[in-house]
């Protein structure tokens, strides 16, 4: 199977997951004040590297492997129970006032099955400084195409 066919299959699977999440009623909102523009995160990547900001990818593994933001940790898709368990485990030892930024980027923001459940789980766990990276379309168009750094692989 060619790379183009693989990418097409991956995109189709991600869109299907998004559609299923919407059908299941995952429409909780994230306050505008808790959205972080990509330009702001790009300017704060040194803080991610220094551990002042914990950056967590809450999307699909195949997307993370294709390209993720430097310094981000992988939790897994928050739309699935195993992704939520992984997210909880990842943040278990963090202080609740730790600055945490989550992102997915698998599909358009309005359809993403992962970002809202992850945000609300972190809030339920008592985290007070949670931001969601604002990715209106996809990671490729809202981050990579702007020339911001990306890491391929694990």
Give descriptors for this structure.
7 helices; globular; five-stranded parallel beta sheet; Oxidized Rhodanese, domain 1; alpha/beta; 154 residues; 5 strands
Task: Give me a quick take on this structure.
With 154 residues, the protein is of the alpha/beta class. The protein has helices spanning 3-23, 38-43, 45-49, 61-66, 81-91, 115-124, 139-142; strands spanning 35-36, 53-57, 73-74, 99-103, 129-133.
Task: Profile the largest sheet.
Answer: 5 strands, parallel
Poorly predicted ranges (pLDDT <50, ≥5 residues)? Answer: 2-26
CATH class: Alpha Beta
- CATH architecture term: 3-Layer(aba) Sandwich
Q: Terminal Cα separation, in Å?
A: 22 Å
Lateral strand order in the biggest sheet: 1-5-4-2-3
Order of helices and strands: HEHHEHEHEHEH
Overall helicity: 40-55%
Rg (CA only): 15 Å
User: Into how many domains do the coordinates divide?
Assistant: 1
Beta-strand content bin? 5-15%
Counting DSSP E segments of at least 2 residues, the number of strands comes to 5
User: Which superfamily, in CATH terms, is the homologous superfamily?
Assistant: Rhodanese-like domain
> How does the helix and strand content classify structurally?
alpha/beta
Principal-axes shape call: globular
Q: Whole-number average pLDDT?
A: 87
Please name the CATH topology.
Answer: Oxidized Rhodanese, domain 1
Query: How many helical stretches?
Result: 7
